[in-house]
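The authors assume throughout that readers already know how a fold can be written as discrete tokens. In essence, backbone conformation is discretised, so a fold becomes a row of integers matching the chain in length. A single example would do more here than another paragraph of explanation. For illustration, here is how one protein appears when written out as sequence plus structure tokens:

…
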Amino acid sequence: MDKIEILGLVATLLVLVSYMWSKLKVLRYINIVGSILFVIYGLMIDSYSVWILNGGCILVHIYKLIYDERPVKKYIGCIIVGYPGIGKSSLSISDDRYIDLESSLFKVNGRRSKTWYEVYCHQAVDLALQGYRVFVSAHADVQLYLAYMNIPENIKIYSCHPSLGLKDLWMKRLLDRYHDTKSEKDFAAMEYCRVHYDAGIRSMMRAPFEQITIDSYNYNLKSLLDTKIKTVVWR
């Protein structure tokens, strides 16, 4: 058996052995070595089909190693407990990173079940795990359940609300919004703030979540959240 044939056999064995590895990266490295030997073998026997085929395999493996094996940028979502009127719905419409999880959707025949907030909160966590920034209701039961439920460590919870000093301006904001829409939802938000503004804000401030306070009447919710929320991780 001459040296050229031995080279071809060694190349064949390397290519065959490479397929025994379950790790794709190891398989590619061994296969590249085998393909290089096949290129040399093809040149020595003057076979264009052998060295062109294996040269192409080498290029494919190198491309895959560079582009398929590089770190994947993964976005981890979060949960934002949002005070009525901050602009949850508007932002979720304009930016597909956000979802406004309407608590009214969890009503049946106009009423919620006794444990509606459990299903609601688990739905919020599931959406956050998919990479969304999820707005949830500032309802007391929701805040309490989120505070004590077992949430993955990489899912952060934020509490976004106006400052206590914005009460009069906030009431004007909600009143103007209701006059524009005449919707039941906006009327309920306006009435809640009229009766519970101070108590609602203080309750959110006591919650064990990272606080995002709106200090100005003229603000951009998207910019405010982008400066406070960091969701990019590398895997």
User: Anything to note?
Assistant: The beta strands are 73-75, 78-82, 98-100, 133-136, 156-162, 210-214, 232-234. The first strand starts at residue 73 and ends at 75. The radius of gyration is 30 Å. The longest helix spans residues 184-206.
